[in-house]
Design a protein that fits this description.
Largest sheet: 4 strands, antiparallel
Radius of gyration: 15 Å
Helix content: under 10%
Low-confidence stretches: none
Distance between the termini: 30 Å
Oligomer: single chain
Mean pLDDT: 87
Order of helices and strands: HEEEE
Number of strands: 4
Number of helices: 1
Strand content: 35-45%
């Protein structure tokens, strides 16, 4: 579709993702924990040199870390 209708968040200017934590790792790069405010899913994002990546954050049991979305409303 060439033109799509904007979502409510796009119209109001609300942000979908919030930064939960940012850490600088000496001589390695940066690690950030992002939270999707719509689903509560936590993601870990890394920047090392000129590259980076993002993946869901897992707990010690291998389950995805999910926050309560009501705190973002």
């Amino acid at each position: 579709m060439l033109f799509k209708k904007k979502t409510d968040d796009e119209v109001t200017g609300a942000t979908r993702f919030q930064v939960k934590l940012t850490e600088q790792l000496p001589e390695l790069g940066q690690v950030m924990i992002l939270v999707d405010t719509a689903t509560g899913v936590n993601y870990i994002q890394t920047w090392v040199g000129t590259g980076g990546g993002i993946t869901p954050l897992l707990d010690s049991n291998g389950d995805v870390v999910v926050d309560d979305v009501s705190k973002f409303q």
